[in-house]
Give the backbone structure.
Amino acid sequence: MTTHPLPFGEAPLSTVGTPEKATLLDSSPRSRVWRVRLTDERPVIVKQIVDGGDTGADADTRFAREAAGLRLAGRATGPAVAPAVLATDPSARVFVLEHVEDLGETDDWMPGYAASLARLHSLTGPEDAGALPPAAGPTAADAESFLALARALDLSVPPRVHDELAGLLDRLDPTPHHALLHGDPCPGNDLRTPEGVRFVDFERASLGNGLTELVYLRMGFPTCWCALSVTGAPLEEVEDVYWSTWRGLTGKDVPGDLADACAGWVIQGDALVERAHRGTADQLARVATEDFTWGPHSARERLVHRLNVVAGTTRDHDHLHTFGRLASAMAGHLLTLRPRPRALPPHQARPWP
């Protein structure tokens, strides 16, 4: 592992004390993370947002978003939903965070995940508009890329699908919604503690509709290197946990439509590749001619799972029925290609960090 000097300047020194020992941990190319023991024996986490090649240009923005996300997450009463911020050094893009010990592997990890996700989403409202950017959702270009893939697979695109996708994009506009979104609520960014799950890595935090993150469970965790399948009774149970937690905290039903949120993910080609490659090519166009991989799963495997989910959730949908039939046809065609896409592993196969 490459060594880097611990960025522990005057601001953290005067706030939390002097570091005695530091261990550099694995992290993304966009950050450096250390486990640090202070002279008073307290463990803390030091995270520095760094320039990282193609992803480095927005390092200041990512620091600001994480700072805002952690500040808003710190509003939680009762069990925390994120580590406490002990000190910051904006000039070096450094956070000193509470050390959270992860309890590690358990088969029944999803209810706690869903409860904490709902608690996180409930912490903000219309009065927080502008505290974070609105969530980025699918665009008209994404919709057209999806339809172009259908044509490349020799499938007929009913005219009604164009109208259904236009309506979908309108309904997915994040502007009316102000839930605090994590931005990447994937396995590894959720730490299980005796009090509940805490989320880390808020570099992509935003404000939007919480359903776009609840459906990570249905959609196989669309921004994650690992993809998992959650279906049947376990999915119903965990979504019920989210609904009831949200309703108990806000006194309201969750706004929006699950089918819309699922459809929004399936048309986004950038959700087939890791962050460094997003925005660099039409990823859906690539699916017609090649089956590229991200982590242990291929693009076609991820896409077939998402298409089948959308086909199921839109079967009786007033506004997406024709789109859902097209999604089903696309999944069926992709399964005829070689190598045949494999099913995603079940949620019990979660790769624990």
